Amino acid sequence: MEQIIEVKQLTKAFTYYKKDTGIIHSFKNLIHRNTLTKMAVDHVSFSIRQGEMVGFLGPNGAGKSTTLKMLSGILHPTGGSATVMGYTPWKRHKDFKQQFSIVMGQKSQLWPDLPAADSIYLNKCIYQVEQDSYQRTLDELTEMLGVRDLLHVQVRRLSLGERMKLELIASLIHRPKLLFLDEPTIGLDLLAQKAIRQFLRHYNEQTNATIILTSHYMKDIEDLCPRVILIQGGRITYDGELQQVNAEYGDKRIMKLQFHEHVEGARLLPFGNVLHHDGTTAVIELDSANIADSSRQLLELLPVSDMLIAEIGAEEGIEALFQRQS
Amino acid sequence: MIHWSEVKRHLHILRLFVKYSLMSQMEYRFNFITGIVAEVAFLIAKLLYVLLVFKTNLHIDGLSPDVILMFLGVHFVFTGIYMGFFFQNFLLLGQTIRGGALDMMMTKPISLQFLVSLRHIDLGMAFPNVITGIVLITKGWNASSIMWTWETVVGFIVFLLVGVILTYCLMIIPSLLSFWLLDTSAAAEISYALWDANNMPASLYHRAIQHIGTFILPFFLITNYGPLFVLGKLSALQLIWALAAPVLFFFLIRTVWKYALRQYNSSSL
Predict the structure, then answer these.
(1) Residues in chain A closer than 8 A to B266 (CB atoms)
(2) pLDDT computed for residue A23 by the predictor
């Protein structure tokens, strides 16, 4: 399958100032500033094929959105190269912009005081979509997302979930080959999240569009993206199938514990790698060979009220990976 | 090279912006009506200038009150164009940059500068000023016994177009600073003050100010050169500068705009 995105050693550095607390330092800062450089994206390389659905995962500030912004031409990189559909994104060629779309969960492109239909029509004119194709796509997308009746309601009167569905329609009206989604389900309720996910999967199957997704909701990634790219501190720490993330944890298990009274974290350390602990609940990663012994000892030594042992799932695998590398 | 199909497309989208802006404003009936009333009240206050010119029989550098009326009229027309087409967009530019809305706009296959600087249009602010301005120009023109010939009318319209381009270029400067500065209100205040000082013939001011206002920040070209042209008071050099200045300043603004976009770091908001 054709490569649609080719990224080589892509780098983006931001400069910022550091200032200690207090007014004295504010005065000092007025005269001289300590300029520091943060590598938001640090020499990342990857390629993506036409029709793939890829999840970008990473903690806040890992460099996911910055990467997406460079690939969509919003930001100029500090170094490296990228080719998206044969174009250098930051040259912002009109033909390039005709073929992709970006949806940001926290930013709207709809005019708030008008019905969404007007903003969608504006996009039709901006993207020079033929009337027949526009009508067909609009009918199809409104049908798929079940929002036909909402097209003529003022955007500011819509719920967040309804607005996001209409944002998607506005972004897809020109049938882009490539779709960047930056946290498209942020703030949505579970039903709305599910509807968006179903729609995206269907859209990908139907149009073979490439979809690059960032999300903090693991469910989005698990449902949609067979492949994930994990970014941490601006660097790629994993690029491969989601199911393989935890392959290296094949001999590991996750133990979820609930206590009926407060337990100090230090008491859990002998049993394995503590992934989570808040006093009354804990998640421990431990060798499968030690499961029987560890369980017996835990029950004897600690006030355990509930215990669940499971294989390491994708979410826990990714969490463990991030913890190990931070 | 100008692609006329692109110009046509942009004009079509501009028509949509006018329509959508009007539709959006009419959603807030009270604001819409009071906005127009406030603009008319402001206009009446500014018309006191006209009264003052005639009451005091003010002559500036040999220009009679009737001729000064034309200068005031042109100033009104451009105030209407500025307030109606540019003001809100320039005001919102800083917010668009800081809030990250620019990110989405950058991905659209259309001129970003066009999209950002002509998106919100307020005809309620434009019409009262433009209509009053045209009335004042016509009265001043007739009272000054200037001939209505093809040359004077077409020449005057050309200077109106020159004025529109220069208004855009000069008044967008404070907003462009938003790419680098957090608060550009001081620069904006200066530009408003310069704008208001431009409602009279330039010869009212000291020669140094006249030069600055003609060659460095050519505000005087906007209101002065149209009336001076029909009065036959522009030299060949001034005519050449009047035609060169909008090209030069538009080129400068485009260069700064492109440079700013290269430096743009987006917003994490």
Answers:
(1) 66, 69, 74-75
(2) 85
